[in-house]
Amino acid sequence: MGQRENNPIDGGDDKAIGEANNSKANKQALYEANNKNEDNQLCGIWGRQLRQLDQEQMGFKFMVHVGDIKYGETPCYESSFSDVADMFSHESNAIHYDLRDSFFVPGDNEFQDCQDVDQAWKWWMKYFGNGVVPNTNGFSTLSDPNITVEYQNSTLLRPYNGGNFAFYTDGVLFVGVNQVGGGIVGDEASRVDGNYKWVKYNMDTHLSRGMRAIVVFAHASMGSARQTYFGAPFMSLLKTNAYSRIKALYIHGDGHTFSNYSPDGTNSNLTSVQVDAGQFANPIIISVLHDAVADDFSFDIDRRGGLYSGDCPAGNIDKTWSSDY
């Protein structure tokens, strides 16, 4: 599979959509965990959800976890990261999906909420990696040999952008960035600005190759503390002549309650989706559709039943991952 590293800055969830109406669908399952990870583990929900993800049957190409893998008020231990990696890769869970097609972006609970951010980031990169510093499970590399995954390079000025990834297929650009919530972190001028420049670099690169849509994966919205360095410039970029026809979807967690909304009332081509907390709902499936007759791209959001009827569905008490707690 093709992988390469780029440093363009600093110098220094069961309905499948098939081939219909001359449309082509790219599908990916997206999973966002509630910040009460202990509740997820006690209920056994993560394991059950993962076992139900069938790439072939459901038709998705990859899946993305959009952050908060641990409870926000608990200390950050290495096991906070290794447990989740073990769960995703455990043979009892990874039955019908390829580990290489599992992508992750960090949440604030495992980033700035940790007592030692630098150490937490080293653990995050160790267990979820970005292909340049390979994790043992091969996460975030893609099983399709025809798609190249690129990774943003870490620098002294932007040490926390190394987890960012991007790949392009069938007219659609997919990008993941370290865009966490939890209020102002203090490094927005470097990390969040680096996120925008990474997105723009890839958009500029693939526009001439026929890019017609972009999907951005992040933990938090593009507004609030991210508005100045990402939200505003990204929304402005999409309204330039070069990108005025691009359909854009920004998917995030953080708020833990499903919402499908427009972050820019002046651009109907831009949509944001906030996914439900993982302990309360199934992973969702996003389909990117291309109507070849109208030559138009669109997004289909399948919540796969939406919220569960109870906080902890019966029959889910299991643990299929290691634990040092």
Automatic annotation (TrEMBL):
InterPro entries named in the record: Metallo-depent_PP-like
Taxonomic superkingdom: Eukaryota
Protein name in UniProt: Calcineurin-like phosphoesterase domain-containing protein
Organism per entry: Stephanodiscus triporus
